[in-house]
Fold:
Amino acid sequence: MRIVLRVANTLAALALIGLGAAAWWFIGRAAPRTSGTVAAPVRAEVTVARDGIGLPHITAASVEDALFAQGYVTAQDRMWQMDMVRRLAAGEVSEVAGAGALETDALARKLRLRRIAEQQARTLPPGDLALLAAYARGVNHYIEEHEGRWGPEFGLLGYQPRPWTVTDTLLCGLQMDLTLTNSWETDVRKARMIAEGDAAKVRRLFPMRTGGEIIPGSNAWALSGTRTAAGKPLLAGDPHLEFGLPPAWHLVHLKAPGLNVIGATLPGVPLVLIGHNEQIAWSVTSLQFDTMDLYAERIDLRSGRYSYQGAVYEAERETELIAVKGARRGEVTNLVTRHGPVFTANDGAHLALRWAAAAPEPYSFPMLQLARAGNWAEFREALAGDQGPGINVIFAARNGDIGHQVAGRLPRRIGFLGDLPLDGSTGQYEWDGMIPFEELPSYLNPASGQVVSANQNPFKEDTRYAVSGFFAPPDRQRQISALLESKAEGWRAEEMVRVQMDVYSAFSHFLARTAVAALAARGPKAPWAAQARQWLDGWNGQMRKELAAPVLTHYLYRQLRRRLGESAGGAAGAEYRFEAAPAAVEQLLRERPAGWFADWDEMIVEALEEGWKEAERELGRDAARWEWGKVNQVTMAHPVLGRLPLAGRFFNAGPFAMSGGITTVQQTTRRLGPSMRFVADLADWDRSLIHLPTGNSGHFTSGHYKDQADEFQAGTAFPVGVGKGEGGRRLEVGAGGA
Structure:
């Protein structure tokens, strides 16, 4: 019997080993080839040297060959991610994922992203078109060369990638544009609150300016050389985006005649969006200027006829067919007026969405010009051609200049904000074109020796056009500025990372003091109140993961936000959300205007008690075990491999207990946070630092799938510079091939 059991156990072990080997082969066969020679249709040999974090350093004899190689190596690392982003933007996820994605696809079709991308491609200048085409050829060479070995995601979902096009690159850009500018749902929510409540009170909850902005101003800043140890500027950037695996950015270094640039870009988009060349460095934050307006149209949906300035016009009718895996295809019919596609709101209103990204003006892609810029004037000349979403771009140069430039396609509104649905029939609320680049905020070498952007409103109060947006409260900007002012000189690159990881919340600190005062005035004798007061009284505002006080301020804020929303907007106010809501809440708590609550202290205590109960429901009744990191917990999940039975967790990163919050410099929630950290040292590029939340490759067996995760959590960044990569593994992309 023992022999039988021994044989059975041996056979089971062998079967398990065989199954594991087969799984490893299935998953690992798509890992990028990083050495040897690849025949490719390039004019001269291209070298790709991978360094210790998998960053490809590409050296080519021409810019087009460099971009071909960038397309190839990005596809090596992120082909499935690239394919999903273009499908998400085009509304084609259902084709490979089934009916569960149909609603998302239908919205993308309503927004007409593919049609917009095709229009942009048709209007690209020939030079820009050639650059994007070279990148696409590189992606397609990878697709053709790796038949059946593109990645396990393709095998599990049972499909293969179609050829990459210039339009696909523009779709990737539009998807990020939509992520950064999707404000129309806020307009609808605000209108619903006004309809059910007090318009004046509702407007106080949606401030365009809080009064706390610092002019000049995701986080980015530059520090003058007069403030640094080496006498040259330092520049830092850590854009905040939704967490995911693979991460949002791909790191790359491109070197060709007239080009030497290193940094990060979006998979699917060539060149570098954040980084440095030999003379300048730059980083980007979202401007959060409102580029979307809703117009209430007087339209007959059956005929498509609508009225405008007393005349009758006919909307364009577009039919979108959506392929659905394993089910009948879906269909979306769009009616498109002069303002845009028509949506029907819950109250029956027909609202057309106008979006700056859909403007018919010619489109350009100025990233090569930016990568070659050597000074402030050339930097601004490149950004003048930017046709993407509104952005703040922070600049530093080896000659000592630092600056802040706003760029992008921004509608010029005269006499109206566009923060509520507009009457589309009168013609009174039309955009006066786009704001000329020369009129956008621009700051060079301020006396303070620093420029800081943290999504706050950078426009001056006397701006002659209407400034509408969903700008962040100024807490992060003020804290960054205060930290930079805490040391007059001698700053080093590694100290910039420590600033990026700061977790002090002035807003939460204020809430704690407010709650303690309210408990003293109206607090019950209940044990929960005594414990809350003990935690909050004397707390220093640090949103550290091991503390309980941040738990209370988090749930208190949620309750206060709901109560203020309902006081202003009735039942609709329960869904009150806005980027600047913390600033609005703080201002109202400080002023305590009449007409909101009979007793503000009593309301605050009630909100705190309800917040305590909510914490009990989430974290358990034993309050001694409460920690902020149990609430603010992040798992960076792979959308396909992370869902595999039993093995899925190995393909995810986390869960991580995170310090920080919505108003800290290290802005972290369960959903979003720093998508990378970057510091450029303009005295010595080799002292520059960078890291990603996980790794540079989307392939589990590559060695760079999540090799940066521990360092990212600890704040240990990797040196990166123009001269790096010589010691890594080399892949020669040789002239030849089809």
In short: Residues 4-26, 211-217 have pLDDT under 50 and may be disordered.
